[in-house]
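User: I've been trying to design a sequence by hand for this structure and keep getting stuck. Would you show me what you'd pick, starting by listing the structure so we're on the same page?

Assistant: Good idea, let's start from the same input. This is the structure you sent:
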């Protein structure tokens, strides 16, 4: 049996938003108006238990093994019902990262429950591994600093060697409070990653979005929020709340590409999250082709958001025309993504430019 979904903590009424503006967690402004405290959104921005219910509902749509078997390389990755060869997946990712990532995304929606659980778990783990190895701090996204007695971060062996040697001579464990770790600190920056999960965002695009989640969540932790939008906005990870990045990646893949595209709604949902942040610098990152086909004017929503936060757009490299038009109209920054292979560099560039530009 596949593992049970990780329970989602319901967001308390008024959490976060009321600390800063009194804005209800689901505030949404009518066309041409700014977000104001108490605005309603007719239930189109979902958070907490409502978001969990929407994810569970969306995950009922699955892909049969027969359909998956039509994909090149599937039999090598899943040689039998309920099986996924992790070594084969990793080797295939090295050979053809875009096609393999797209196939892994589709397997994460398999009708075969055991295969689906394995693919979801592996996709999240690989995304986090690659984010950790990316060294996004080179572009000023974040910095490490030494911290004595910190329980998080990576142990600094050189700085801790005297403590370790002394403990070994004494035949006792090292004093944890005296060990030195190198920890990430980004208290001056908050990020909301707003991801298009409409019908145009499938396969490699969804894999790219999963890697973007991993990169932002790993580097910013609770200072990052993640929102997936189509004609509804679903908060996968709320601002200033500690969440498991692998769970957030899995939730995105359970949603899959579906629905029409309301870019303005996604922007407003991300702005609501950023209004909860206490950081001096706040950045809204839109991962989308920005081809809106419903809702309010996207340029108006982005322009209004830019009066409060920086905005960067991550657009598919082969379909960036609408995103480029939106960026020109608003002054937002835009970066192109050709596939999962270049998402980490693009995010580092976009966040660094938005933060310092």
């Amino acid at each position: 049996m596949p593992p049970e979904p990780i329970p989602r903590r319901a967001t308390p009424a008024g959490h976060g938003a009321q600390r800063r503006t009194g804005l209800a967690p689901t505030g949404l402004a009518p066309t041409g108006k700014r977000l104001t405290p108490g605005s309603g959104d007719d239930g189109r921005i979902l958070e907490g238990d409502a978001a969990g219910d929407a994810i569970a509902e969306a995950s009922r749509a699955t892909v049969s093994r027969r359909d998956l078997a039509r994909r090149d390389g599937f039999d090598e990755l899943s040689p039998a019902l309920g099986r996924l060869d992790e070594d084969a997946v990793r080797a295939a990712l090295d050979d053809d990262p875009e096609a393999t990532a797209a196939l892994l995304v589709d397997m994460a929606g398999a009708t075969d429950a055991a295969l689906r659980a394995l693919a979801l778990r592996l996709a999240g783990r690989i995304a986090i591994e690659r984010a950790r190895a990316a060294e996004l701090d080179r572009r000023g996204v974040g910095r490490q600093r030494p911290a004595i007695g910190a329980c998080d971060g990576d142990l600094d062996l050189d700085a801790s060697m005297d403590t370790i040697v002394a403990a070994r001579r004494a035949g006792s464990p090292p004093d944890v409070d005296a060990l030195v770790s190198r920890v990430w600190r980004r208290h001056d920056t908050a990020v909301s990653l707003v991801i298009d999960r409409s019908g145009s965002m499938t396969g490699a695009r969804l894999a790219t979005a999963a890697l973007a989640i991993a990169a932002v969540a790993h580097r910013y932790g609770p200072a990052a929020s993640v929102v997936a939008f189509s004609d509804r906005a679903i908060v996968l990870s709320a601002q200033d709340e500690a969440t498991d990045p692998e769970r957030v990646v899995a939730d995105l893949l359970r949603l899959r590409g579906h629905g029409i595209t309301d870019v303005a709604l996604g922007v407003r949902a991300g702005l609501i999250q950023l209004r909860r942040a206490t950081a001096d610098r706040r950045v809204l990152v839109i991962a989308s082709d920005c081809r809106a086909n419903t809702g309010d004017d996207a340029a108006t929503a982005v322009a209004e958001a830019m009066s409060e936060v920086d905005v960067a757009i991550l657009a598919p490299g082969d379909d960036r025309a609408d995103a480029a038009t939106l960026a020109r109209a608003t002054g937002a920054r835009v970066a192109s993504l050709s596939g999962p292979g270049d998402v980490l560099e693009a995010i580092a560039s976009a966040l660094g430019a938005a933060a310092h530009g």
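That's my pick for every position. To get oriented when you compare it with your attempt: The chain has 14 helices and ten strands. Residues 1-141+186-357 form a domain with the Rossmann fold fold (CATH 3.40.50.410).
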